[in-house]
Write a structure and sequence with these properties.
- The protein has helices spanning 7-16, 33-42, 60-63, 109-121, 152-155, 167-176, 181-189, 199-204, 214-224, 232-242, 244-255, 262-267, 269-276, 281-297, 302-321, 325-337, 341-350, 352-364; strands spanning 3-5, 22-26, 47-52, 66-72, 78-84, 97-102, 123-124, 127-128, 134-139, 158-163.
- It has 365 residues and is an alpha/beta fold.
- It has a 6-stranded parallel sheet. It has a two-stranded antiparallel ribbon with strand order 4-5.
- Strand 4 and strand 5 form a beta hairpin.
- The longest helix is centred in the last third of the chain and has 20 residues, at 302-321.
- The chain is elongated, with a radius of gyration of 26 Å.
């Protein structure tokens, strides 16, 4: 099995790997491989060309179509030869590109043979990719896919990694892209549903049975933006996106009266605390993470900053005064990890008592 890397490690891998070395990512569909690659290289000013090899029926889709080329020599003699016209995607401006070969192990064998020369020599039918171009491939892994066995010689031309993004990375992405709070809160509390549920639920799903993935949860968020109260027809719509089991779990969680998010606590403290006071440890841990997510990804006005800072201070003091030592330790561990830099800056500037309390608590450990 290939070594597993998360989103942060993938970006570092892409940054450090020379353009002359090929990269292959192994993973399920819908986990964000294409989006992360495209965003990473576009930020460097590189064009990303995605080829879905599983959809190609003929090598001509990659190398172009043959054409008869006639040439005259100095004596006026005509000679003819066959050449291949470049396909629509082939770069002609001399600028390096990133060629993303998606669904590599769903391609026909004759397509894979065409890819061999591309991965080794960066050439297609005698035409070279611009200097500095990269080749990156993605393959699916799992018994639920119809796959083509890859030639070991082809695999040997790639650095191979299993792409396994963290749930926390998706939550950060979801908050940054302003996905519906109900979706974010559900995945935070039930992270196994992000990539299809637990193993038993995945094994039960066959054929056309839907299971959720990260792409599907974005679709759910887009649908939920237009829904205030979930009724029966909404359940049917959601089931078509993420499956029945995930829909039942999502709706049950969303309708549960005790749901309090970081946004709720920091903006409606008094009403939220009536429920928070009854929370068990695992619920407080989820709330702590939600607080940091909210502070990390929300742009607050000056008045809002003062309100949020006041409520955050009150919450941390409540944890300390009510002997919620494990919950306070959890809050401190998130603080100490340092992943939420904007949240830490907010505490340092606007909620200094909380920041100092965290530092003192860490020193005492």
């Amino acid at each position: 099995m290939a070594v597993a890397i998360n989103t942060t490690e993938l970006k570092e891998t892409l940054y450090l790997t020379p353009a002359s070395q090929n990269v292959m990512l192994v993973g399920k569909h819908g986990i964000g491989k294409s989006e992360i690659l495209t965003q990473h290289f576009q930020q460097q000013g590189m064009r990303v060309i995605t080829l879905f090899l599983g959809q190609m029926a003929d090598p001509g889709d990659i190398i172009g179509l043959p054409a008869r080329i006639e040439k005259k020599d100095a004596d006026g003699n005509v000679t003819a030869q066959t050449d291949f016209t470049p396909p629509y995607w082939f770069p002609t401006d001399g600028q390096p590109v990133v060629l993303f070969l998606d669904e590599l192990n769903r391609a026909r064998p004759e397509i894979l043979q065409t890819v061999m020369d591309l991965t080794l020599n960066r050439t297609l039918a005698g035409k070279s990719l611009p200097e500095g171009s990269r080749v990156i491939a993605a393959v699916n892994d799992g018994e639920e896919y119809q796959l083509t066995d890859l030639d070991p010689a082809l695999v040997s031309r790639f650095n191979v990694y299993e792409f396994r993004p963290k749930v926390e990375e998706w939550l950060n992405w979801a908050m940054e892209h302003k996905l519906d709070d109900r979706v974010v809160n559900f995945i935070q509390s039930s992270p196994s549903w992000l990539d299809g549920g637990d193993e038993a639920q995945k094994q039960q799903a066959q054929g056309l049975d839907k299971t959720p993935d990260r792409r599907a949860w974005k679709k759910v968020s887009d649908i939920m933006r237009n829904i205030d109260t979930i009724d029966d027809v909404h359940k049917l719509i959601l089931a078509g996106v993420i499956g029945t089991a995930a829909t039942v779990a999502f709706v049950r969680h969303t309708l549960r009266a005790g749901n309090i998010t970081g946004k709720d606590l920091l903006t409606k403290y008094v009403s939220s605390m009536k429920k928070v006071q009854k929370f068990e440890l695992h619920e407080l841990a989820q709330l702590n993470e939600s607080i940091f997510l909210y502070l990390e990804h929300t742009d607050l006005g000056e008045r809002e900053k003062n309100v949020v800072a006041k409520n955050l201070t009150a919450y941390v003091e409540w944890l300390a005064d009510n002997k919620q030592r494990e919950a306070l330790a959890n809050f401190t561990s998130i603080f100490e990890k340092g992943s939420y830099t904007k949240a830490l800056t907010f505490m340092l500037v606007y909620a200094r008592n909380v920041y100092d309390h965290m530092i003192d608590y860490i020193d005492q450990i």
